[in-house]
Amino acid sequence: LLAQNLLRLQGATANLANRWRGKLVVVGSSALIGNNLPDRGATPLSRETILVSKHWNVANSLLTGRFVTRSPLAIDLVLIILLGVLAAFLSWRLRVLTASVAVILMATAYLVFGVALYIHTRYWIPLVLPIGGAMLMNYASIITWRAVFEQAERRRVRAVLSTIVS
């Protein structure tokens, strides 16, 4: 490159070869030492990554035409409500241990479905709010309510029966 720049400065442009035609070049620093040289940092994939790789990913999306598509708000809300109602129904109807296993299996199945959908189609559905906000919070609330109020009802029935039956 330096030799070609020297030829260009001397006016010998006919001898210049364009080796970069049709190629994409991303320039960044990968130095390991120095105050202003390293362009490294943490990403979700690694603790130590060359940060210019973010541009590689953008270029790859543009060249391949594969973009991440976010689900609309209506689908997000339907998923949150549907999974919350399903977790509440299971928690209310089943015994505590059976409901626990059912809710954990349902959350795991939804998580696997969401990740597989993203990997294969780049379609992004919410994971945290439907699982954590709807399923687990409904489950915890209903199990707590059942434990507190069923125990209170059990104590009340025992107290009534103890006054009637010796």
Task: Give the tags.
166 residues; mainly alpha; two-stranded antiparallel ribbon; two-stranded parallel ribbon; 63% helix
The average pLDDT is 86
- The secondary-structure element order is HEEHEHHEH
Tell me the radius of gyration: 30 Å
User: What's the tally of helices?
Assistant: 5
Helix content: 55-70%
Largest sheet: 2 strands, antiparallel
Q: Name the poorly predicted regions.
A: none
Strands in their spatial order, largest beta sheet: 1-2
Shape: elongated
Range of strand content: under 5%
Measured distance between first and last alpha carbons? 102 Å
Count of distinct strands: 4
Provide the structure class.
mainly alpha
Short account of what is shown:
With 166 residues, the protein is mostly helical.
Tell me what the structure shows.
- The chain is mainly alpha-helical and 166 residues long.
- Helix content is 63%, strand content 5%.
- The strands form two sheets. A two-stranded antiparallel ribbon has the order 1-2. A two-stranded parallel ribbon has the order 3-4.
- β1 and β2 (49-50) form a beta hairpin.
- α3 (73-93) packs antiparallel against α4, α3 runs parallel beside α5 (128-164) and α4 runs antiparallel to α5.
- The model has no long low-confidence stretch (mean pLDDT 86).
